[in-house]
């Protein structure tokens, strides 16, 4: 484990809150801005190394110091629950800003949508049918078109009327664009087909568990200096603190194939 600096004691000169605040993303972020601008000792959290392990350690130390600051001014009660809620809220506020930057400045619409959806305690699984723009984008990739061609070739030379392929090793890489790479990258697939006359009604399900990878976003998604700072400050501990929660994604692609 990485040794971080012990929490420092804030100055008694800090302005005190009359009662604990209601913790929301907005209130947590505003309080965090106050913390960074305060005289709270920076040695409580500064660990200047670039290795991912140290990025995580520094983020944890900074959040610990932030919690100490919030307690010292009466903004939160000194409980594990209040500290956890405060940390989670400020991380979510920052990561939400990252998603907005990715969408507004780089056009990473799908990746931003998935990232924002993960910023809740119990995100619902997402399914995109054949009329959804996400489905069109996925279907138009070379990888998926090659998959459809391979299945079509297989069906052209068979007398069966029902087709199923649910092999657990089925993999498709959705990385044709940075948006898809950050949203999916490696996904699994299943395919089912029913033949009526000379036409196959084929359904392919592209399935993935959304799992935020900060190193990918740092390398490919850091579209502004602000985005890179957010990643370094918060992303490496986001899932550990429960700020980002994985969920399942299914893209349903329907095709009619004449053989």
Count of helical segments?
A: 9
Supply Rg.
24 Å
Based on Cα principal axes, name the global outline: elongated
Q: Which regions contain 5 or more consecutive residues with pLDDT less than 50?
A: 1-13
- Structural class determined from secondary elements: alpha+beta
Largest sheet: 6 strands, mixed
Query: Quaternary status of these chains?
Result: single chain
The amount of beta strand, in percent, is 15-25%
Output mean pLDDT.
Answer: 86
Report the span from N to C terminus: 60 Å
**Number of separate strands:** 6
- Encode the helix/strand succession as letters: HHHHEHHEEHEEHHE
Helix content: 40-55%
Commentary on this structure:
There is one protein chain. This protein has 259 residues and is of the alpha+beta class. It has helices at residues 25-37, 52-72, 80-106, 109-117, 133-139, 142-156, 178-183, 214-221, 225-234, and strands spanning 126-128, 162-165, 171-174, 185-196, 199-210, 247-258. Strands 1, 2, 3, 4, 5 and 6 form a six-stranded mixed β-sheet that branches. Helix 3 (80-106) runs antiparallel to helix 9. The longest helix is centred in the middle third of the chain and has 27 residues, at 80-106. The protein is elongated and about 80 Å long. 32% of the residues are buried. Residues 1-13 have low confidence and may be disordered.
Q: What are the salient characteristics of this protein?
A:
259 residues, alpha+beta, disordered N terminus, 6-stranded mixed sheet
